Amino acid sequence: MKDDKTISMAAAEKHGSVLVIGGGISGIQSALDLANSGFKVYVLEEKPAIGGVMSQLDKTFPTNDCSMCIMSPKLVDVGRHPNIELITFSELKDITGKVGNFKVKILKKPRYVDGEKCTGCGVCIENCPVLFQPQIPEKPKEPSQVRDQVYIDELISKYSYYEAPLIQIMLEVNKKYRYLPRDVLEYLSFKLDTALSTIYRVATFYKTFSLEPLGKYHIKICLGTACHVRGARNIVDKVKDAIDAAEEGLFSLETVNCLGACALGPIMMVNEEVHGHMTVDKVDEIITSLEGIK
Amino acid sequence: MKKLSNPKELEKLRKTIQNRRDPNKPVVTICGGTGCQASGCEHIIETFKKEIIKQSLQEKIDVRITGCHGFCEKGPLVVIYPSKIFYPMVKSKDVSRIISETVVNNKVIEELLYVDPSSGERITYEDDIPFYKKQTRTIFGSNGKIDPKNIEDYIAISGYSALEKVLPSMKPQDVIDEVKKSGLRGRGGGGFRTGQKWESCSKAKGKQKYIICNADEGDPGAYMDRSILEGNSHSVIEGMILGAFAIDSNHGYIYVRAEYPLAVKHFSIALNQARKLGLLGKNILNSGFDFDIKIYQGGGAFVCGESSALIQSIEGNVGEPRAKHIHATERGLWDCPTVINNVETWANIPLIINKGAKWYASIGTEKSKGTKIFSLVGKINNTGLVEVPMGMTIKEIVFDIGGGIPNDKEFKAIQTGGPSGGCIPRSLMDMPIDFDELKRAGSMMGSGGMIVMDEDTCMVDVARYFMEFNLDESCGKCSSCREGNARMLEILEDICVGKGNENSIPLLEELSEYIKETSLCGLGKTAPNPVLTTLKYFKDEYLSHIQKKECPAKVCKPLIFYEINSEDCTGCGMCAKKCPVNAITGEKKKPHTIDKDICTKCGTCIATCKFNAIQVKTGEKK
Predict the structure, then answer these.
(1) Quick one: pLDDT band at residue B537, thresholds 50, 70, 90?
(2) Distances (CA, A) of A82 to A25, A36, A42, A44, A77
(3) Residue A281 main-chain phi, psi, to 5 deg
């Protein structure tokens, strides 16, 4: 926009269409804003798909928001917008003309696929003879080696009458091994036809699950309100000291938000055993009474 | 047990059980709830059984392990029927005496009786104890009378009679109308009218309908659902069957916390027994109505108590709530119409059907009907579960039932509604407790936790505690809850360590407003409540933390210091010996001193000192 003359001239022969170069988040947002205000928009992207770097990120700065949650609705909008045309897998070769009336030369790379007919089902990728797989297979293709296969199979059939048995099976596995071993999760992924990433998400969301083996003595201390006002914090500090002094692998500590025995607070649980009315002195007493403690 | 094929057979079975039982045969009932288990009731049960064999009285005495009686503070509890003589805190050395004197000869052993702390009197019978006397135990009363693992016990006290009444003669709409007329409101927290919920679900269309019992009792300080499930699972099952009949559902789920193993065990035993009798399953009592219940265990996520998150969890996903512009009653579990009610709500249903909506509506206040179980915990003499009619005042609950505050301390506030609720100050002590009054005071009913706080509880610390809890349990879906709570916690932590400034309070208020407005589910929407109510009623405490750098309750460690009063200290040296960081020095028999720079304020010395010479002070160190 150098001088008024060019602008007024350009306005006279204005085409009303815009080319956005780059289909990353900023390109997508500009395209949407422009298209919504009535311009015809072409989005040019070098890669076979739009999305750019943001689509590869887990979280964004500074709010730590999930980037796909922000992005995916916009991706869909761009794809569906009647005013937006996507030109992907293409490069800009030349640009001529003035403001309001540019002419561009675009190199469209060959896809060997009829874009009009392709539905993006992904079957061709799965069957590609040179095994060009853009993603790691999420579900194991065949049952992996697993400990106690008989037991796991029994569990699967025990809960088969549940519509969604995954969490129930994981609870039992977690109880038996005191954590969720990876081989069991992989086996479950195959057997239940559930992506390993889904299982991982469940395993990390719920507090009961652990991905690392717990100590021989797993100590739970309740920090519910009733226990809190009766000084449960001091018990936690004391137990931490005791654990630091002990051998590794013997203890693990978890603070929980209510064990539901509030009348007896503060409460400490060593494996399945409940100890009520805890005091700092009682911690030593209980810990030294355990087997294998010097 | 033979499968019952019609309601008449159920009635016949009840008569047979009642006739078989001799009301004069002595029964030793021992509480087997989690509270008493932690106090060692299992050992007491064993001793009783052994002792009865030893005295060869197996034929003459029955032993019954019951569910929670509510008076957990005094466990293990033993009640001898039919005389109803009550012994708290029973020790195994007393067992043989209890059998030979009380059970066999009906003689009361004076020194084992409960002593009323306010009058010093010994009280013989369970019903006469002030803790129980003022309660109205309609739901909870049966807990102490039945063995939860034996369906015959429940049937004998007219259990499943509501089902017997409904199946042959009532239409589903009649059941809904009855519940509507009773005025029952959901006991899980929100207080939505149960009858209306059922009605909209029964009108909704779907290929399948679901009934869910929400037993994911996550509120810290509340454990009444656990006690009902452990002590009287059948009342919940019966309620669920009636609800299923009312909305025409064939599938039920109960979502129980994994932290409640005993509840899961008792509930699954109860389910199996009900199935064997034909009270669950296909064609219940020849009515053509099918219904069964599955147990689904949670994985320890507080947010799963929220209905939409709970549904997500049953569907096998992570428990993230969704927006509720469509109610679960229209599209809930697997997009089918679903009714979710809390354990206590379900346990109320058989009562309403049996005794009638009119009877039920006569209890409570104008808009909150029936009774409510509260867990009275914290700084109070009689901790435990109490069931009172709606509308009882805080004062009556805390002082008449709860027996006041231990060690003659001053009552400061009660906290209700768990992390979503708020703190109600002493000045509102005469406020009647019901759904609407609590809301007006800035708190909420929640699932019924009632945590009593005394002068030694710092309200800023309480607010900080709840913020920490909410942050920890936030599922992370909405940024306002995930990030906003973190910022609020930071500010509160700053105030607690004396780094607060004049902007802290306005900032807290502003953040609270945003978090409330922009969060999706109940957790986020109510997360600022504990901060807002403490700010409303205890602003002076915040101000002394911020302006004077003092913690009036002497809780916040960076703002307090320990000092030895040289007049009281005898120089015994006990504290110096016990101090883990060797901060106490002094010559023998002369007053000791504490080095304030080394002292970690752990409290060991205070517990050790017999002369009350160690004082906690707040403010500037001198």
Answers:
(1) very high
(2) 19, 10, 11, 16, 10
(3) -65, -35
Q: How would residue B621 be classed by pLDDT, with cut points 50, 70 and 90?
A: low
Alpha-carbon gap, residue B404 to B376, rounded angstroms: 11
Instruction: Record the tokens describing residue A128, joined without a space.
Output: 């590609």
Contact A260 B73 (CB under 8 A): no
Give burial (CB, 10 Å; 0-12/13-18/19+) of A84: buried
Nearest to B37 among A231, A262, A274 (CB): A274
CB atoms within 10 A of CB B496: 21
What pLDDT score does B603 carry? 78
Residue B232 has pLDDT above 80, yes or no: yes
Name the residue of chain B whose CA is nearest to A224's CA: B220
Cβ contact, residue pair A170, B297, below 8 Å = no
Q: Which of B433, B425, B409, B407 is nearest to B462 (CA)?
A: B425
| 3-state SS, residue B102 | helix
Is the pLDDT score of A4 beyond 60?
no
| Residue of chain A minimizing CA distance to B41 | A274
- A280 to chain B: nearest residue by CA? B604
Residue B407 burial class via C-beta count within 10 angstroms: exposed 0-12, middle 13-18, buried 19 and up: exposed
Could A64 and B483 be called an inter-chain contact, meaning their C-beta atoms sit closer than 8 Å? yes
- Please give the Cα distance from B470 to B523 (Å, whole number): 7
Q: Shortest CA distance to B270 belongs to which of B279, B257, B259, B260?
A: B279
DSSP letter (8 states) at residue A119: -
What tokens were used for A134? 């853009």
User: Which of B297, B299, B377 is opposite residue A226, by nearest beta carbon?
Assistant: B377
pLDDT of residue B490: 92
Domains of chain B, with CATH numbers?
A: 25-81+85-124 (3.40.30.10), 151-361 (3.40.50.11540), 371-454 (3.10.20.600), 459-546 (1.20.1440.230), 557-618 (3.30.70.20)
Paired with B425 in beta bridges are: B413
Rg (CA), chain A: 30
Measured CA to CA, the distance from residue B561 to residue B614 in angstroms comes to: 10
Mean pLDDT of B430-442: 88
Q: Is B76 left (phi over 0), alpha (psi -120 to 50) or beta?
A: beta
Report CA torsion sign: B406, B409, B414, B418.
negative
Region A155-169 average pLDDT:
89
Beta bridge partners of B387: B373
Over residues A7-33, mean pLDDT: 80
Q: DSSP string of A12-30?
A: HT---EEEEE--SHHHHHH
ipTM of the modeled complex: 0.80
Look at A128-132, B133-137, B192-196, B605-609 and tell me which has the smallest mean pLDDT: A128-132
Q: What is the overall mean pLDDT for chain B?
A: 87
pLDDT at A7 over 50: no
pTM for the whole structure: 0.78
CA-CA-CA-CA torsion sign (B380, B382, B387, B392): negative
A205, A225, A263 ranked by CB distance to B384: nearest: A263
Query: Is residue B71 within 8 Å of B132, Cβ to Cβ?
Result: yes
Q: Are strands B411-416 and B251-256 parallel, antiparallel or unpaired?
A: unpaired
In B, which residues are within 8 Å of A206 by CB distance?
A: 298-301, 318-319
